[in-house]
Amino acid sequence: MSGTDSEHTKEWDFWITGGRKSGSWNKIQVPSQWEQQGFGSYNYGRDYVTYGKKFKFNDEVGLYKHKFFVPNSWKEKSINIVFEGSMTDTDVKINGQPAGKIHQGAFYEFKYDISDKLKFGKQNILEVKVSKMSADKSVNNAEHLADYWVLGGIFRPVYLEATPIENISWTAIEAAAGGTFRSNIHLKGIEAANQLKVELFDGKNILVGESQITIQKGDTLKQIQFSVKNPKLWTAETPNLYKAKFSLNKNRKNIYQTEEKFGFRTIEIRKGDGIYINGTKIKMKGINRHVWWPETGRAVNRNIDLMDVQLIKEMNMNAVRCAHYPPNKSFLQICDSLGLYVLNELAGWQKKYSTEVGKKLVKEMVTRDANHPSIIFWSNGNEGGHNFDLDTEFAKYDLSNRPVIHAHHKPENAFNGIDCNHYEDYYSTKKILEGESIYMPTEFLHAQDDGGGGTSLADYWELHWNSKKGAGGFIWAFADEGLVRTDFNNQIDVNAINAPDGVVGPHREKEGSFYAIREIYSPVKIELKTLPKNFNGIIPVENRYHFTNLNECQFEWKLMKFKTPFSSESGFDVLQKGKAESPDIKSTEKGNIKLNLPANWKESEALSLTATDLFGKEIYTWIWKISSNHEISKQFQKILTKESSVSVGENDSLFILKSEEKEFSISKKDGLLKSVILDKKGKKMTFRNGPVFINGKTELSSIKSFAEAENHIIEVVYKDGKKINWKLNSNGILELNYEYSLSGDYLFAGVSFDYPENYVISAKWLGKGPYHVWKNRTQGQTYNVWQNLKNSTRTGFSPWIYPEFKGYFDDVSWLQLDTAEGKITIGTKEEKMFVRLFDFYGIYGAEGFPKLPTGNISFLDAIPPLGTVLAFNINNETSALGPESELNHLNETFKRTLYFYFGLPDLGDEVKQFTMPEVNILTD
């Protein structure tokens, strides 16, 4: 009738009562959201929450018409018209006759038997009236008064379902881990059929079990039960699927057949202990997911569903919450086949359905979805949207009697032994975990802008992993709900601060949190940060799988050499590689990976290790530096072969360090770099006003200039003990040595300079990347020579160009800025230097957070943590999010050497120069 999804649509006739293109018949693609087809008006559900009764939704009504043909051969069949999702009240007529009662509820599959209303062998007319707002107040409360876009129309497929008069209307399967298979088989129209048969097939389509029973005229429900020996069990790590084939037979002749995929697995809630799958305690590494695509809203397709499951799995997650309504069917099918634990939710954002409507919708949700092994829980609404009268309704249709939970934000609402309280901080989480209930927050670490998500996650995850009652949880949220606004020239709108809550963008652009989550949740847990001096190729590892031995994974090492600053390339060259033996380490146990490196491994600059799972998918790649920054800086200096004499001049206000071509002016007043001149023609580089110490005020104590061998030094001492030494080397490198001491709690520590951001073209650096970091989100970034074209991306907002150019970058050995004035190359001799590039914030509100250091290019020994939008960003008070989120506790003296080279040196063969060929220019 309609198309099958958002990519394969059919054109119907359409009339809308209000908004754009209203008042006349047009054409519309089905399935779709009518706003995305240029009709009606946009609504964001939270508008009502913000303005209360003063706000009125656009109460638009869409009228659909479609002609369809039914063949004569269908006369003896039972025919249903099926709607998989329509927002909201849906009134269906076939050839002018009502198909049945108006359906209320947007996210649920419903059907009508229209066998007696059809004209066979002729054209039929389908008329559908869809009201965006429901006539039932509780449906509006549950589905529309919410923190998401409210979009109208028939957004999932519509089709005819033709079966014999005698058929199986639906089945409910329970397949336990011990091999027991049970099924409730709901029958319709049984007259002559006298036998019901069930056959089970494994993943290779081999018959593994069968049973049959006799049925009688008028039977509407039969149960079949039998056992399968040693079934392969379904888990998120081992998504083994079976197929059940149900047959209706009349005297051994098949008259109807249907199939269902399922998995053998047992769910158990052991109160005061944990959640068990097949007798093994599991912890949820989960995320909340809306059904969403910017161009089409909630009308999506299987490719989008597949991409989302693959991205969630790529983050090493094992669970997903369907927020805040049941998804389309293909998403659950993919969760079954690729392996994700699913929390399937009845709608109700913060208000609930009435009991009358809610009972119908629970039935529609559960009868559609009951046989998916991926579904571990039913969720009866969200954050107060729980109608407790519905708690017992789920089991009426779910033979496996899955647990029902309440996704809530009040601790007293713990249900079925599970507390799902939202947005607790680290320390209140700790307290809950000491209580009676299992704790599994269905929302935590709200990821608006760049906050939350992977930020602070490491502390939370360790808390849950090591706690008896910690069951993991579900981060809010997967993707920014950015909508292509057809009324605003197709700009993407995230409704200000309401919807940029994802760890991926609207088109699944990956934020820094994506990679942090991937490392933190890696089931192969490696904590080694740097290679010890006595490293012998043995790497300690912990197996954080629940069911998988690490001997089922693969491990490959590589020895590498990084590209140099003045090379035209980024990345590294692989010098050698090999396979490590997969260690025999059972789930939740610890051991070692032995790399068996060659004897000359220390001659390389870096070592990488890639872990791959039993399906051939990369789990994570770790990279460790072998060469120190001191060794790397020596290589950098060896490139600069041209030398010239160095001198120093001065005037009333400046010391001027001079080489053959370059001049560097240092202020006598404060010891700061004031100007850089690149050549004899006086070409300037506007890098200046540093190093400014970003903590405390500095007052000059003394400044002097003196010669040291062939070099000249300017020594600066401040009254509070801070020191600066400037030195111009004969190879053109300007060397800066500085020293400062801090005692106390600080957002950041280090020095800053000024440079015009609008002059910058790109950055290249050796260090961790390619994304910026925070003190409490350094995970997910690896060593390499990275290169990034300048952008002004604000995380979560258009244009979603990632990685962001601005931010704090971790463990930088050298940085090269390509600018309109030339190249600026800066290296460090010491380890663990952060670089800050320009002005940015992690969270945007009335003010940006956290605060920034002075200047706009900084070389730092400490950087700030980031909070979340909900409670922990005020005055950068992030400490409630855990130890990693506390301010930097400093009590030490910092000493660092920076090397500056301005411009592009004469590198000989190091860089291939491009020469324009000779040409003849012809003119009139």
Automatic annotation (TrEMBL):
Keywords noted in UniProt: Calcium, Glycosidase, Hydrolase
EC number: 3.2.1.23
Coiled coil: none
Glycoside hydrolase family 2 catalytic domain ranges (all copies): 268-488
InterPro entries: Bact_Beta-galactosidase, Beta-gal/glucu_dom_sf, Gal_mutarotase_sf_dom, Galactose-bd-like_sf, GH, GH-type_carb-bd, Glyco_hydro_2, Glyco_hydro_2_cat
A family per Pfam: Glyco_hydro_2
Catalyzed reaction equations: Hydrolysis of terminal non-reducing beta-D-galactose residues in beta-D-galactosides
SUPFAM superfamilies assigned: (Trans)glycosidases, beta-Galactosidase/glucuronidase domain, Galactose mutarotase-like, Galactose-binding domain-like
Cofactor: Ca(2+)
Domain Glycosyl hydrolases family 2 sugar binding: 26-164
PROSITE patterns: GLYCOSYL_HYDROL_F2_1
Residue intervals of the Glycoside hydrolase family 2 immunoglobulin-like beta-sandwich domain: 189-265
Enzyme class: hydrolase
Superkingdom to which the source organism belongs: Bacteria
Family: Belongs to the glycosyl hydrolase 2 family.
Subunit structure: Monomer.
Name used for this protein in its record: Beta-galactosidase
Organism field: Chryseobacterium lathyri
